Amino acid sequence: MEYRSTRENATALFASQAIIKGISKDGGLFVPSRFPDLRDSLEKFKELDYKQLAAEVMGAYLDEFDKDTLLEYAEKAYSRYDCKEVVPVKKLSSGIHMLELWHGPTMAFKDMALQMLPLLLTGSLKIQRQDKNILILVATSGDTGKAALEGFCDVEHTGICVFYPHDGVSKAQKLQMVTQDGNNVMVSGIYGNFDDAQTGVKTLFADEEFNSKIEEVGYSLSSANSINWGRLLPQIVYYFWGYLDLVRKGSVKIGDKINVCVPTGNFGNILAAYYAKQMGLPVGTLICASNVNNVLTDFFKTGTYCANREFYKTNSPSMDILISSNLERLLYHFSGENDKEIKRLMADLKEKGEYTVSGDIKDKMDKEFFVGYCNEQATLDVINTVFDEQKYLMDTHTAVAYDVVCQYKRETGDDAPCLVASTASPYKFSASVVDALDYPVEDDVFKNAEKIEEVTGVKIPEPLLALKNKDVRFNGICSKEDMAKIVLDWIKNNG
Ligand SMILES: *Cc1c(COP(=O)(O)O)cnc(C)c1O
Question: What is the C-alpha to C-alpha distance for residues 289 and 269, in angstroms, rounded to an integer?
């Protein structure tokens, strides 16, 4: 299988090369040159456990890796999950199916990919016989940072630096990051929002002087953000899993279509669902749910992507994003793999803060996607009502998706089974959840968690309890302009 950049597709790379690089020199993202068709394997896949399924689905894209190696990776990556299914699927009395992606070590769906990425990356280095060390740079809206830190903590030949918006993440998210163990990790807040952090990291990737300084000390840069193919690929697996779970439980027969709804920020998770569909998974509509940072809702409705707008800090902070990176991959496919067109759109975005897609692309968007958003109060109301009526507790991001599914059903009357990506444990956003349940919010993360446990009976997850006795290791905050210096100083002292 070959991989090509969305902005320059004359050059073909192997998967291992695309994973090591993370992002292309021209700023483009790597995409597979075709989608393997797994339609006829669904019957066989029905019998597999999650880890075996992961080896099969990922194997379809990774011909340089043998199946046994991938199975070994999957066993390792999903060994720290708190339930044997890895991804349980729960049917609510409303008939909606919740795909619970947050049973890993950091309580958010990012673990699904970030427990796997370090294995794919070190495997890729071996394949390429590269003996350089890898420095992972991460911009996070809260969940990626911690998941990447857990994934790369003390992995040989790697170092990891994480930047988060210093007052743009939840208390639990921040505590998870600043107390991170490991000798190869660095964490810093930045003044600004997630887009500032992400732009800062992208700028470092493109900065030749910075890259050569990093190389002088024996490292090369890579990314653990969802722009890395090694991050997107493991996310495709769980859509197959969710579908097969509905088959096993008799909710659908193989071939019946289901809809999928995803609370969306950087467009990685829902893009993985689109890829699953291209691979023959019977998916009807892809439902893209946003919070009040509804740049995607407007884009799908109008064909104009406009990032020049107010940025809101919401109770679903992992979706507080105005520049949704993985959309570039979707547009590349929808443009008929027209790299020049994508390059032009992305240049418009950089220069003017907006771009407008062709009528042809817009038609494809209309055909595949339904979009909607959910405001702050409605998010809390969903958590309250669903718990009250269906005894199911969800986090704020998942609540946004739940609300948009309800909008979809109301507007279209389509009652095909729907899978909702449940992306975080409610305990990761405990202050908002306590608020939603109509109890007074405490300053202390653990007090809020105890309140939730007391009123809902849902057990506090082990990884949250473990934070209680940890010391803060990283309390620095820097400006976007200082990122290069901070990374260089750190790597000289720790590399
Ligand atoms: C990252 C994240 C999202 C958004 O996912 P994207 O792949 O960036 O669209 C949604 N919910 C939670 C809890 C997240 O951590």
Answer: 11
Name 164's bridge partners: 189
Structure tokens at 324: 């949704």
DSSP letters along 355-422, please? EE--HHHHHHHHHHEEEEE--HHHHHHHHHHHHHHH-----HHHHHHHHHHHHHHHHH---S-EEEEE
The answer to whether 83 and 113 are in contact (CB under 8 A) is: no
- Any atom of ligand 1 within 6 Å of the Cβ of 264: yes
**What is the per-residue pLDDT for 205?**
87
Q: How far is the CA of 318 from the centre of ligand 1 (A)?
A: 5
- H/E stretch holding 489 reads helix 483-494
Are 87 and 101 within 8 A, CB to CB? Answer: yes
291 lines ligand 1 (CB under 6 A): no
Read off the amino acid at residue 82.
D
DSSP string over 35-55: ----GGGHHHHTT--HHHHHH
- Judging by DSSP bridges, how do beta strands 89-91 and 30-32 pair with one another? unpaired
101 lines ligand 1 (CB under 6 A): no
Q: Which two tokens stand for residue 343?
A: 């390059």
CA of 126 to the centre of ligand 1 (A): 31
- Show the tokens assigned to 129: 């016989």
**Ligand 1 atom nearest to 268, measured from its CA:** 7
- Token look-up 């993440």 returns 169
487 lines ligand 1 (CB under 6 A): no
CB 492 within 8 A of CB 217: yes
pLDDT at 407: 98
Q: Would you state the structure tokens that stand for residue 228, as one six-digit string? A: 């890395």
- At 381 the pLDDT is 98
Distance 460 CA to ligand 1 centre (A): 21
Phi–psi pair at 483, nearest 5 degrees: -55, -45
Predicted pLDDT of residue 230: 96
For ligand 1, the distance from its centroid to the CA atom of residue 264, given in whole angstroms, is 6
Angle between helices 171-178 and 143-152 (to 10 degrees): 30
Q: Which residue, 210, 419, 194, is CA-closest to 323?
A: 194
Q: Can you tell me the distance from the alpha carbon of 223 to that of 452, in angstroms, rounded to the nearest whole number?
A: 36
pLDDT for 62 equals: 98
Question: Is there a contact between 422 and 98 (Cβ–Cβ < 8 Å)?
Answer: yes
- Please give the distance, rounded to the nearest whole angstrom, from the Cα atom of residue 48 to the centre of ligand 1: 27
Q: Detail the DSSP E strand segments found in 264-367.
A: 283-290, 304-306, 354-356
Report the alpha-carbon distance of residue 53 to residue 396 in Å, rounded. 29
The predicted structure's pLDDT at residue 168: 87
Residue 495: predicted pLDDT:
60
Tell me which residues of the chain have a pLDDT lower than 70: 495
Q: Is the dihedral of CA 426, 138, 122, 47 positive or negative?
A: positive
Which atom of ligand 1 is closest in space to residue 269's alpha carbon? 7
